Amino acid sequence: MFILGLTGGIASGKSTVSNYLASKNIPIVDADIGAREVVEVGTEGLQSIVTHFDKEVLSEDGSLNRKKLGAIIFDNETKRELLNQLLGTNIREWILTKVADYRRQDIPLLVLDIPLLYEASYQEVCDAVMVVYTPPEIQLERLIKRNGLTTKEAQDRINSQLSIEKKKQLADILIDNSNKIEDTYLQIDEWLDKMKF
Ligand SMILES: CC(C)(COP(=O)(O)OP(=O)(O)OC[C@H]1O[C@@H](n2cnc3c(N)ncnc32)[C@H](O)[C@@H]1O)[C@@H](O)C(=O)NCCC(=O)NCCS
Ligand SMILES: Nc1ncnc2c1ncn2[C@@H]1O[C@H](COP(=O)(O)OP(=O)(O)OP(=O)(O)O)[C@@H](O)[C@H]1O
Question: How far apart (Å, rounded) are the C-alpha atoms in residues 126 and 99?
Fold first, then answer.
């Protein structure tokens, strides 16, 4: 089984690419889903957040108020690192369990869609890493538009990750998503063909 890591900057187009790969029946392990599961009501992940961040990050129904926690961590490096420490191990375990499940199924290609792939060293479990790239100004523009953020909020989120230019340098496969989506799909098709998947 070939393990393809898929990453990029926030709002650079990872989901756009992973949805396209999923439409070709390629299985995807999505770290953002794992990151939600490990903080569901009743998990030790959610409990540890309450312990370290205070009850104000909970909504009235006891679930995580993602907007509030996001507002706290994206402009505060110390708190962001604390959250990463609290959840990192549980997210890793969630991802590696999925990988082990797929290994038993004898499939040719598995995609790991992980926003913080390089930041958390997941390249070690991948055979190759595909980086979805857009220049920083397009990334900022798309993030503001999609999430309805102010320029400062969007820039804080971008700055909370390894820069997209650095990810571009590290990439084994670079997908340029700054033009039309069809142009991006074409680059994916070329790679799939080349690899005979
Ligand atoms: C802070 C939280 C509650 C904000 O939730 P929200 O629904 O607003 O955003 P969502 O989870 O959809 O994430 C959106 C994007 O933000 C970026 N992001 C998320 N967490 C982080 C982080 N700790 N550091 C840098 N970027 C991050 C990713 O690119 C992600 O795709 C949430 O992002 C979270 O729990 N983050 C910590 C878990 C984590 O590290 N997730 C990344 C998985 S590798
Ligand atoms: N080639 C493109 N042309 C125009 N808009 C695009 C293109 N690719 C993606 N978008 C838009 O940009 C936004 C970000 O794309 P997407 O959600 O795929 O990014 P992402 O990397 O998965 O983001 P995140 O890190 O937050 O999960 C979305 O609103 C999407 O519709």
Answer: 11
Residues 114 and 136 in one domain: yes
How far apart CA 74 and CA 81 sit, in angstroms, is 10
At 62 the three-state DSSP class reads: coil
With the most atoms of ligand 1 within 8 angstroms of its CB, the residue from 28, 73, 93, 167 to mutate is 73
146 ligand 2 Cβ < 6 A: yes
Model-level ipTM above the cut of 0.90: yes
Question: Mind listing the pLDDT tens digit for each residue in 17-58?
Answer: 999 999 999 999 999 999 999 999 999 999 999 999 988 999
Same domain, 89 and 159: no
The whole domain housing 128 covers 1-27+108-197
Would you say the CB of residue 32 lies under 6 angstroms from ligand 1? yes
Count of domains for the chain: 2
User: CA–CA separation, 115 vs 102, rounded Å?
Assistant: 20
Please tell me the pTM assigned to this model.
Answer: 0.97
**Residue closest to 170 by CA, chosen among 133, 134, 196:** 133
Residue linked to tokens 């650079």: 12
CA distance 18 to 122: 17
